[in-house]
TrEMBL record:
Keywords: Iron, Iron-sulfur, Metal-binding, S-adenosyl-L-methionine. Pfam families: Radical_SAM. This is SPASM domain-containing protein. One of its GO terms (molecular function) is oxidoreductase activity. Belongs to the radical SAM superfamily. Anaerobic sulfatase-maturating enzyme family. CDD domains: Radical_SAM. Residues 71-308 form the Radical SAM core domain. Its cofactor is [4Fe-4S] cluster. PANTHER family: ANAEROBIC SULFATASE-MATURATING ENZYME HOMOLOG ASLB-RELATED.
């Protein structure tokens, strides 16, 4: 992979049919004739003022799509409930520190879950959609609460003409055939954490007694894979230096029948164990690009290949996404601790750096708005000088706070390849994007 000329104002890239530029402001993509491509290269070499003049000359300058004004008081649209701050696995790099977030293992009570759901539903208007997620620890340790909370949320939403989506992230070891029926009934998005195939997964995600968990997970997830209609079952892989060979893993999980498969780099672990360093991230980038090339060839051939990192990136590029935040953490999305605290997201549960209120008294307005002001991408450095800033949004808040920005080159390299793939797929299979909308 090679990157062509770029600045904070434009990023050039080459597809199968020629040179293009991304104008980050507004995430606009343009084809370049060869003469204009030379002008872009010359302007980039001359500096930002020259690029600005070039954009002005060709009518591509505009009022900023994103200004410096941070979000203020956006409504809550999604909550994740840490229904069980405990886990039966002993993964060394777990952001939840073995599931208990560094505290006493405990379950969420019904009054806490109910108060959280009522706060979510009350913030929505008829016709709007909200999302309720169940996480842990391992959420199925507290299966009864998951079921009660789901039924209650569905009833409350129906009574208010509000659409509600459900999701759960599980280690898969406690899944049952009855869970398959329940998740299918409510149309859950089920994410199973799988960090490799066979022994690789067992080494990374053992039971607390040391035994491997892979065989048990695959046996228990099969009824869910077989039942998928309203329910969608995905595999999520946390990538460490020990499971960084991704292409065979992706093929294996796709063949198994997962609705989608995605990879996430291990950038910040509580004790720093198994975090990726710069060489690891470049290796991961090469593997991701290999997966992307397989995705492109399969897609052009008309075959579904559910590599979620790429499908999500293409969907966002096609929508022209340009965002001042990397995600909804602290904006429309919050994590709820077992004790009822409202935190910026599920990774900040029981972390005072991310505590923004509680389900009983609601959000602390000033503290929450200060969080949003501080996390705006224009307040992040070196993001303001990066061409990828409005595609990336400044990176995961939790990882940036606790480890900094070790993955910027990885993210830019990945987005660069996503832009190339977008143009190639748009040229050869534009129907992919209409299918993605349906």
């Amino acid at each position: 992979m090679t990157e062509a000329a770029h600045s904070s104002l434009v990023h050039a890239f080459d597809s199968q049919r020629g040179r293009h530029i991304l104008v980050p402001d507004g995430s606009r993509i343009y084809d370049l004739a060869s003469e204009l491509a030379l002008e872009v290269d010359t302007a980039v070499s001359a500096g930002e003022d020259a690029v600005a003049r070039l954009l002005e000359r060709y009518g591509l300058a505009s009022s900023p799509y994103i200004d410096d004004v941070p979000l203020q008081d956006p409504p809550i649209r999604a909550l994740s409930l840490a229904v069980a701050q405990k886990c039966n696995l002993g993964c060394a790099y777990c952001y939840a520190q073995g599931g208990d977030f560094g505290g006493v293992p405990r379950n969420m009570s019904w009054p806490i879950a109910r108060a959280a759901i009522e706060r979510l539903i009350d913030a929505a208007e008829p016709g709007q959609r909200v999302n309720l997620a169940f996480l842990g620890g391992e959420p199925l340790v507290n299966r009864a609460l998951v079921r009660d909370a789901t039924a209650f949320a569905a009833d409350q939403a129906k009574a208010r003409d509000i659409r509600v989506g459900f999701s759960i992230t599980t280690n898969g070891t406690l899944l049952s055939a009855e869970d398959a029926s329940f998740f299918e009934e409510y149309g859950f998005a089920v994410t199973v954490s799988l960090d490799g195939v066979g022994d690789t997964h067992d080494r990374l995600r053992p039971f607390r007694g040391g035994d491997g968990s892979y065989a048990r997970i695959m046996a228990r997830v099969k009824p869910l894979l077989d039942r998928q209609q309203r329910m969608q079952v995905s595999a999520r892989v946390t990538v460490t230096p020990l499971n960084i060979q991704l292409q065979d893993m992706l093929d294996e999980f796709v063949a198994t029948g997962f609705h989608s498969v995605g990879f996430s780099p291990m950038l910040s672990a509580p004790m720093g164990r198994l975090e990726l360093n710069q060489p690891d991230l470049m290796t991961m980038l090469e593997e991701m690009i290999g997966c992307a090339r397989k995705f492109e060839s399969e897609t052009v051939a008309g075959r579904r290949y559910p590599f979620s990192n790429m499908t999500e990136a293409l969907r966002q590029i096609h929508r022209g996404i340009h965002r001042p935040y990397s995600c909804g953490a602290g904006a429309g999305y919050f994590g709820v601790s077992a004790e009822g605290g409202l935190f910026a997201c599920h990774r900040f549960v029981d972390d005072e750096n991310g505590r923004l209120g509680d389900v009983k008294d609601g959000l602390q307005r000033d503290k929450r708005n200060a969080w949003l002001a501080e996390r705006h991408v224009h307040r992040q450095e070196p993001c303001s000088k990066c061409w990828a800033r409005y595609l990336c949004g400044g990176g995961c808040h939790h990882e940036v706070i606790y480890r900094g920005r070790p993955a910027c080159d990885f993210i830019r390299g990945w987005l660069h390849h996503c832009l190339i793939t977008y143009v190639n797929v748009m040229e050869q299979r534009p129907d992919f994007f209409s299918a993605e909308r349906s």
